[in-house]
Design goal:
It is a single chain. The chain is mostly helical and 402 residues long. It has 18 helices and no strands. Helix 4 runs antiparallel to helix 5. The two termini are 18 Å apart. 56% of the residues are buried. Mean pLDDT is 79; it is low at 188-197 and 392-402.
């Protein structure tokens, strides 16, 4: 008997996660700068949070691969609870600056760690016969982000910094409730059918078993460096051009609105274009965006440049999940999802740190020039590696039916 669709629940999961990301991640720089932290300290805090989550993601994924069953749901709910606790403490308690920064860092860490688990939840339930329209869910998640970015940007500009935390907390509480409502799973269908013929490898064995896959993740990391740096320090880019946090909100709204439109039709796009080609196009789009940002003459130009989100991050983000499915065996699938997300998270950490240092010691143009170099290297790595395969996946090939 066919199991029911989980598209609605998974969509709300995506919407609440990405809408809260508009606050706790995209406006983190503006929030922390407004609380009195220096740009270099802000970059360091966000970078450390990203690095910690990058290190934790494969470890948690290895645990999930070995335990299986319902652990993904409880891990995701627990991490969301940590986020609520951390950001609640930041908002409600009068904390010294050092403690304030450490608690916020812990919240960012827990938030980042949830990302690969969210993709793994989709894979797990799809493999167990549940129907999920990933493109629709992810697209509406981007729409939630765009609306939240617009609302939070205006609230921060008109009402004050604290509104970012209040909105994010409400969304995270909703996220916990949605996650706890997922049906119980005990094992992966495909592993049952195959009799678990292929053993789950360890974290360190993963690097040797999937060499080309890991090389391609370097390209993802470099693109993430550029994307995170320019997004998190967008307030510093628009301010010399006459913008403010409201301008940042508009820019993020434009980017995520076009992202949502493309994602709604992403499944159709994949029918005509290989995942590897989508990743290559994403790299070129990031590079073009980097060059245009370097020479942007006005806030209006920034808004227009944000339209490139349609083929840069929008192609990279969902394609990562499908690319991992085409290169990684089911026994290692949660680790495969975690590693590609961890590479993006590591890039975000490096980008946050580099952006803070470049702004602190040089200038906004220097930061944007660094972004061009990151995007160029990331694009080159993807073009050289994504077509290479470590193993043939007869039933899990590229653009295969889910």
């Amino acid at each position: 008997m066919e199991k029911r669709s989980l598209t609605v629940r998974y969509t709300v999961h995506q919407v609440t996660y990405w809408a809260s990301a508009a606050g706790v991640v995209s406006f983190a720089t503006a929030f922390l700068l407004g609380k009195g932290f220096a740009p270099a300290i802000v970059g360091t805090l966000l970078a450390v949070g990203n690095l910690l989550s990058c290190a934790a993601q494969p470890v948690l994924a290895n645990f999930a691969d070995r335990v299986g069953g319902n652990v993904l749901k409880w891990m995701t709910a627990a991490l969301t609870g940590v986020c609520v606790l951390c950001f609640g403490c930041v908002q409600l308690l009068q904390l010294p600056m050092a403690i304030f920064g450490a608690v916020y860092l812990l919240g960012v860490f827990a938030f980042d760690v949830m990302n690969p688990l969210m993709n793994a939840v989709n894979v797990a339930y799809s493999e167990n016969g549940y129907r999920i329209n990933y493109g629709l869910s992810r697209g509406l998640g981007s729409f939630g982000y765009s609306v939240a970015a617009l609302v939070i940007g205006e609230l921060m500009a008109r009402r004050g910094l604290d509104w970012m935390i209040w909105v994010s907390l409400a969304l995270l509480v909703g996220n916990v409730l949605v996650v706890l409502g997922y049906p119980t799973l005990h094992t992966m269908v495909r592993q049952q059918e195959e009799g678990a013929a292929e053993a789950c490898c360890t974290v360190w064995q993963f690097f040797g078993k999937y060499r080309w896959y890991c090389f391609s993740l370097v390209g993802v990391m470099l693109l993430a460096m550029f994307h995170a740096m320019t997004e998190n320090y967008l307030i510093e880019v628009v301010t010399p051009l006459g913008g403010d946090s409201g301008s940042v909100g508009v820019a993020l709204f434009i980017a995520t609105f076009v992202e949502m439109v493309v994602l709604l039709f992403f499944e159709r796009v994949r029918k005509h274009m290989k995942d590897t080609l989508l990743l290559k196009i994403a790299g070129l789009s990031f590079l073009l965006k980097a060059v245009l940002l370097l020479f942007a003459p006005s806030v209006t130009a920034i808004y227009l440049i944000q339209l490139l989100q349609a083929t840069s991050y929008t192609f990279l983000s969902p394609t990562q999940m499908y690319y991992a499915r085409s290169r990684i065996s089911m026994a290692d699938m949660v680790k495969g999802q975690a590693f590609i997300t961890a590479s993006y998270t590591l890039g975000c950490a490096a980008g946050n740190f580099a952006g803070g240092q470049l702004l602190q010691h040089f200038s906004v143009p220097a930061m944007l020039l660094g972004g061009v170099l990151m995007a160029a290297l990331g694009t080159a790595v993807l073009w050289l590696t994504v077509e290479r395969k470590d193993m043939e996946m007869a039933e899990n090939g590229e653009n295969s039916a889910l």
